[in-house]
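Quick question, first post here. What does this chain look like in 3D?
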Amino acid sequence: MSEVRTQNTTTTVLAPKIKKKSYLNKIGFGFLYLILGLFAVIQIYPLIWLVFFSLKTNQEVFGMSPFSLPQDPQWGNYLKAWTSGNIGLYFFNSVWMTILSVFLTIILASLVTFAVTRMHWKLSGLVLGLFLVAYMIPLHSTLIPLFNMYNHANLIDNPASIVLSYTAFNLPLTIMILLGFYKTFPREIEEAAVMDGCSVHRIFFQVTLPMTIPVLSTTAIINMIYNWNEFVFVNTFISSDKWKTLTVGINNFVGQYLTDWGAIGATLVISIVPILLAFLFLSDKIVEGMAAGSVKG
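> Answer (accepted):
Ran it through. Tokens below.
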């Protein structure tokens, strides 16, 4: 009887403490969600402000508070940006240059990583080191050498200079991400393919490459965002409107005496929407690929 009473007394004493602890946990989580919500609003507000900015006239941009709403939304700014500003052509150029560069980067990086991690040759470590060292080279320090090289190769004002530059500068990061995945990838699968009589090419294209789809999707999204937003290479190597991309085409609305700020805002919104949609729908793939490419201890 005494033991039963002791247990009941202990339970009675601990119950308020558990309830109090649970209540404090709820308050803590509520405060945390409040802080995260504030940070989310701070992050989203510039996008909302840009949309309002794209619907204003020049008089509203300079004559009213930057936080004010447009009095008469100028939806025509988007039509002006797409037609008069030649944004349709720039948008198409951005799409096909980005897709081609991402494809070349993924294929070349996969081939390099497979050769370094699966094939035994003396200079594999040196080659891998050279690719990773290239990641530390500042982009702007290469503009003059690249311009001279492309000029001698007659590639100035040619989209090939942009695709080659994007591919070369995205290779080190892509190889670095793939390297972590290949080191954890079970070799037994490839050894079983060798026992079945598969050649090296069939092992790569039919076994290894399909197995790396999660991490490849991550690298594709990262490279796509970089290529889509890139400005320096296009502004340096491209001079004609025929091959300009969205990031450079915005300058069409900047005149010597008048700048159409509403059309510039509309162009920025148009350029942001594809990347924003890609991130919203493929964010799970980014997390999955980064987890797959991490080195397991």
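Residues 58 and 261 are 6 Å apart (CA to CA).
Confidence is low (pLDDT under 50) at residues 1-5.
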